[in-house]
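During the reporting period the student researcher (J.K.) took over the structure-prediction task from the postdoctoral fellow and processed the backlog of single-chain submissions. One of the processed entries is reproduced below for the supervisory committee.
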Amino acid sequence: MKFFFIECANREAQEQIKELSDMNFAIGSHTMTHAFLNEVEKEQAFWEINASKKIIEELTSKKCEWLCLPRGRGNEEIYKMIMDAGYKYIRSTKIFNLESIKLGLNHTTIHACPIRPEYEGKNWIDFFDDYLKKSVKEKGTFKFWVHYWELEKYGIFLEFEDCLKKLKEVKDEQIADRKNKGTSVTS
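J.K. obtained the following structure tokens:
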């Protein structure tokens, strides 16, 4: 599970980063101020990318390998800047993707948000269920995310929690299946 923070310099965020890191969560950057990196001056983009990484690594004593693009916005120049800063992975907000995690740019599967235009007015949970089944069948990598404020604004805490339970059930089934087949299990 990954967590991305917007304002890493904020004292409250720093406390959360340390606490979650101590609980073995991986902490990824979401820049310093949530600036759209391809819409700001190069100097600001450089600072947004590098300062957030430095703060996270100082707080956690661990490498910060992920950067989630604010609003999923970037371009080749920004991707290069991110990789040159020492990140291994970039996450966009493009949905409906089941590809395995790879170095560089990675897209996501489902965004727990009822107003995504890609959902064309349909319930996001139906897409969640369909893509979760598809990921199991095709042995794809399911990547699920939400902003905390969206949970509050759209009142979807319980739905999100149900989805997390479904993900855990799938993982538990996969672990049991691997154990029964005598293959190694990694989490």
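The committee noted the following: The mean pLDDT is 91.
J.K. will present the remaining backlog at the next meeting.
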